[in-house]
Design brief:
The complex is a heterotrimer of chains A (315), B (201) and C (561). Chain B is mostly helical. Chain B is built from 5 helices and no strands. Chain C is globular and about 70 Å long. The chains are: A alpha+beta (315), B mainly alpha (201), C mainly alpha (561). The structure holds heme-A (HEA) (2 copies), dinuclear copper ion and copper (II) ion.
Amino acid sequence: MTSTSPSPRQGLPIRRILVISLATLVNLVLSIWMAQWSVDWLPVAASTAAPYVDGLFSLEVGIGCFIFVGCVGFILWSVLFSRADKYDESDGLPIEGNTRLEIAWTVIPFVVVMALAFYSIHVNEQLASLGPKTKYDLAVDQQPDAVAAADNLKDIGPIRVISRQWSWEFVYPDGVRSSELHLPVSQRANFQLSSEDVLHSFYVPAFRLKQDIIPGSVISYSITPTREGTYRLRDAMFSGAYFSSNQTHVIVESGEAYDQWLKKAASQPLVSGLSQATELYQQRLAKGDRGWATVPPAAPPMVNDPGHPDVLHDA
Amino acid sequence: MSTTASDLPLQHTPGHIKHDGHNLTGFVIFLCSESIIFLAFFAGFILLKLTAPEWLPKGVEGLETRMPLINTIVLVSSSFVAYFAERKLHQGNLWGFRLLWMLTMAMGCYFVYGQYVEWSELAFSLNSGVFGGTFYLLTGFHGLHVITGILLMALMLGRSFRPNNYAKGDMGVTSVSLFWHFVDVIWIILYVLIYVWQRSS
Amino acid sequence: MTINYDPRVLKAPHPVPGAPDNWKRFFSFNTDAKVIGIQYIGLSLFFLLVGGLLAMVMRGELITPASDLVDPTVYNGLYTMHGTVMLFLFLFPVLNGFNNLLIPTMIGAPDMAFPKLNAAAFWLVPVFAIVLMGSFFVPGGPASAGWWSYPPVSIQNPLGHFINGQFLWILAVALSGVSSIMGAINFVTTILRMRAPGMTLFRMPVFIWTAWAAQTLQLIGLPALTGGAIMLLFDLSFGTSFFQPEGGGDPVLYQHFFWFYSHPAVYVMVLPVFGIFSELITVYSRKPLFGYRFVALASFVITFLGLIVWVHHMFYSGTPQWMRNLFMVTTMLIAVPTGVKVFAWLGTLWGGKIRLTTPMLFVLGGLVNFIFGGITGVMLGTAPIDIHVGNTYFVVAHFHYIIFNTIGFGIFAGIYHWFPKFTGRMFYEGLGKVHFALTFIGATLNWLPLHWAGLMGMPRRVASYDPEFALWNVIASIGAFMLGVASIPFILNMVSSWARGAKAPPNPWRAIGLEWLLPSPPPAENFEDDIPTVISEPYGYGLGRPLVEDEDYYVRRAQEA
Ligand code: HEA
Ligand code: HEA
Ligand code: CUA
Ligand SMILES: [Cu+2]
């Protein structure tokens, strides 16, 4: 670095304005491109909620990229062009502040984040209109359906989602039990989420929806899948030793396929459902129960359809 | 750089000049912080009471309020006694201070005793649902503070017999009496929450 | 090797930095804030290694999708202890170390307001460290419900023993809280009551402002955590049911207690680092801090806002809609005072005489990472997005971007910058730059890719994961191992510089500040009975104005020492 690098003060204002506008333009283009690209970073969108979330995310990536690149560009510029020479002991420009500038960079971010916040509230309300997510407290020995108001606009359900350490069980209104969640596409499904032991979380990344399941409460929860396929349902609230195995599939299929599945499942006898944790725990016991303490897994639920855990998933 | 450079060390500010009153500042900060634990417990109590599907354990009707009221009156009046004790100390009346101070301690002890009697007669335990849990937690945690207060007062009482104890001021007594008022105010809130509020729900 | 000691060093009533054969004082109950500061920093760096070692094992496990290196129960214990060790045994203690070194010297006080309390607060750290580390050896293993310790999973107590990992964890956290409160009372009292004459609030260095704001948060937040911890302990050990649904308790209530403290805690951690940034950027750009008063005041705006955003950790916990909306607004507001600081630093860089020394490199690297982590923070604060990425690696990446890639960087910067002042020795610039390069590259490789894993839906706290996340995790693990390697030049530098580095002059960076008017290392009571009178705002670079009355006298005195 040489100390003859142009001091920002010396440049012609017109040249400076030009450079700044050009930089801003480049940044703007880059940010818009990033915002568009960012949608690809998310799993396939498979519910009515997903487009809202993705749109908001893309918007924030754009704004975030603009701010980040702007700030980092500024830092790089300063580092490149305002370096001190090795033996230069002088001081920089003794600017102590600039009230107008300071007010500007307080007010502009304020406006930006408030606009963002209110737009997000708006999105939040729209998401809520896609189906309620309401928590009801349960007294001891009470049944979920006794307290949880069902969703009036639902097409199917309420499907009871029972979470345990560490397995999922889905109970359909006609009594069919299964280890994988089957849903008809484009129909609003209502769930009653409940837990038999600790906190779990009902998380389907492709649906962009996540809801903690709280023991002692039942949550009435509705979603509408929009794309056929096989998706992962992941427990997303740490629930103990085999938390990472507490996953299953969500199969979104056409209405007919769904009805067929229901009919077929109803005719099947109850068998032990999917519980990878049970297998892992057996392996551990066989190896001499080493490792740190854990509660044993709950017995696998008895279900009509234990599912096909080895099928590949879309997201 | 400096205009008054001289070779002689000037008379600058000595290091320990500004040390008076730190103890009181520190203690007040501590009390503010301590009050947040109680606030947290109170908030927890209110939330649990408002949302628990079942509040009172089976077979429990509620809390008896007369004995605790007497206890409350004793504790609250002891704050005034402590205040007068402090006044006496400022007036230089050492024995007056000691007597009133001992009276405060006695009233505190009476409160603890009353609390003990109440606890031993209750039909529910720490494990009787959230009601039992919050009751014993709040009263117990407060009781610990009362006992701490009495011990601190005993310490101050003992120290008052040391010659020249108050030569550097009576920060200790001020702090302890502040603590005592604090414990009192907490009790009033606690009493309202636990004993008075139960009827309205 | 012979060195000329400050004559006062040898006269002092108790051992002080720089005197011969005095390393023992760092292992004793010493009430000198500067000794305690170094004790804190030394101990906490040791625990950075411990926490880092745990992280290495975790990253080793996560390099493959299957849970094959350790049992899942062990993995759970590892990350729980990693988080706890890093926060309570590395980050808080190291910041208290800075507070001890810098508060008295920067405000011209001879010591802390309560030196004995100060030493006691420090010695509680090894005590709860032993409790926490001891939990590795109790039957059943250490706590393994995450550093949140959410009930009911945290109170399941599979073996039924009274002394169990979770019990010791609560005990350790409570003791840590006691120690922090003792520290906070001391720091706030010292700042309020022991400033040098003439040092009005708006003449305090920004580090003091941020330390004050941060310690205020400790005083308000910690008791709430302690309250929650007591209730958790009762549920775990004495059969109450505050958080047990069976007895009418509410698991979500615990989450409020926990985050009411633990959200503000993140600002307790980051605020002092903002202070360090402000001190260092001015020195190494040789410019006054742009908008000093705004930067100082913004600290308390952050304190205030920091207290009212905690529910953003609970957007998917079953919180009602109005709460989500409310806390979304407050969360986003925090970007404003934070932005004021960031822009002020940028303004300070502008047209400066920038010198890319090791500390400055860490500051600039940390600043870049902070802007990134702050922006992902705002995304998380957006409830609809958080509903998707909450509890995934996006969150883990967000907070490591701040907690290691910003705060860790800021701490390294601070250690390098003040190393000559408090040890009296210069460090090796070359090794420092190697340390920076390895750390920056390692940290980026480690945490940047994991954002994508999180966006694709990889949950956190998993010992095994679906194969589609493998690529991101391989890159991350390589980055993590690079961070492990990066600690070698750092340790080498610190140890060898302290043992045989060149003797440091009182003010090697030509910095403006009371601490630089003291000899290196400063004598036991700093300015002793000769406290300077402050006559101007800090950071007067290029303005040619003296900071204190009789500045020449103090400069000469420090040099002659
Ligand atoms: C240690 C420091 C630290 C800091 C400083 C922050 C800062 C912020 N954090 Fe972070 N956070 C953590 C540590 C930290 N965080 C930790 C440890 C967790 C997880 C704990 C756990 O779950 O285990 C977490 C988790 C976390 C969550 C919960 C996610 C979840 O669990 O689902 C959220 C949600 O809102 C959040 C938000 C924010 C926001 C909005 C900020 C803001 O303060 C950021 C503000 C900064 C900027 C925005 C950048 C600079 C500003 C500008 C350049 C101005 C212009 C900008 C705009 C207009 C946008 N954080
Ligand atoms: C100050 C806080 C802090 C710091 C500095 C770090 C630093 C690091 N963390 Fe930390 N982390 C947390 C706080 C912190 N973390 C918290 C609070 C959690 C949440 C816990 C929870 O969910 O409950 C977490 C969780 C967490 C996870 C998620 C676990 C999970 O959800 O399953 C991971 C995984 O990659 C991780 C990794 C790392 C790594 C690689 C580093 C590196 O930056 C570490 C670098 C440091 C070193 C490397 C030190 C030097 C090491 C050596 C000298 C040993 C040499 C050994 C070899 C080279 C083999 N951390
Ligand atoms: Cu402060 Cu002596
Ligand atoms: Cu937070």
